[in-house]
Amino acid sequence: MDKFRMMFQFLQSNQESFMNGICGIMALASAQMYSAFEFSCPCMPEYNYTYGIGLLIVPPIWFFMLGFVLNNNVSVLAEEWHRPTGRRTKDPSILRYMFCSITQRSLIAPAVWVSVTLMDGKSFLCAFSVNLDLDKFGNYSFLKGMSETEKIKVLARIPCKDLFEHQEVRVAASRYIKCISQACGWMFLLMMTFTAFLIRAIRPCFTQAAFLKTKYWSHYIDIERKMFDETCKEHAKSFAKVCIHQYFEGISGEMRSFHQHCSSKDDSDDEEKHKKSDEEKLLGIRAQDDMNKVLWNWHTCKPALALKKDQMDGKKNGSLNGESNGTTNGFVKGHTHDVGKKEWAVYYSKV
């Protein structure tokens, strides 16, 4: 269990590298899926074009959506987009940066699929075989006397070896269409590479400070969300420990006295330390309604990103405990359920 926890923490700390690895695996998977995929053209005029173009378009769309699903930053982007403004304004440039970053990673696997499909040429042959002019491919006398509908049916059978009798014409037509498909594939790769080059080359031409600002705050939003989740987990764990201890103390005081009598002095000291640490992790929030208000206010009114450097004196701290912190957590004048004001603390955003 500890190994899985260490692996999870490593993936969290290296999320960008992990997502790049996921994109690479998806790209290899797309190429492997195409090579393992059995291409079967229907060889019917009504379905050839739909099947060939569908094989070229539908799987890339699926890979693109899968890239969004596997990217954890999608939920961060959605939360940042829909959250109320509150005390913290929303910067559209940060949202655009996060969306562009997610989109770039999600486009890798679809680009690989389209490139492999065009290089192979089978889907292109299936889709456009009915548009061929067989005058260019030698003996086409077998088409004489046929109606236009019959000719289209014969041309639709070119991708199928078993259904087309004239193999020389079929091979010549297949090579012709595959050459066009491969040319389109190289043009697609050239276009994608040139676009990536332009993005890399043009980015430094704009204000670098603005780019660094959006990159910093996008990372901050992601890290803040992770740290908030970790803090909530620690608080929930400590809350459960203290609640269970208080339950057993109230129900069975004899059981607790028995354990204290049997345990050594060092064990009792360690137990006291653990109790104190659990009490500190509660951060003064000791009631279900109070925690619900804290979570609600975190969503509706996140704290402003402005840290205070100087330490406050006791009087100022006391007033903030009664008013500022009470207002932040949704309480009126620092009121809590059966908890004194001395147990409250002032919280600030850790940028």
TrEMBL record:
Biological process according to GO: ATP export
A GO cellular-component term linked to this record: plasma membrane
Topological category with respect to the lipid bilayer: Multi-pass membrane protein
Region (Disordered): 312-334
Signal peptide from the UniProt entry: none
Record Pfam families: Ca_hom_mod
Residue stretches of biased makeup (Polar residues): 318-330
Keywords attached to this entry: Ion channel, Ion transport, Membrane, Transmembrane, Transmembrane helix, Transport
Keyword Secreted on entry: no
Family: Belongs to the CALHM family.
Protein name: Uncharacterized protein
Originating species: Mola mola (Ocean sunfish)
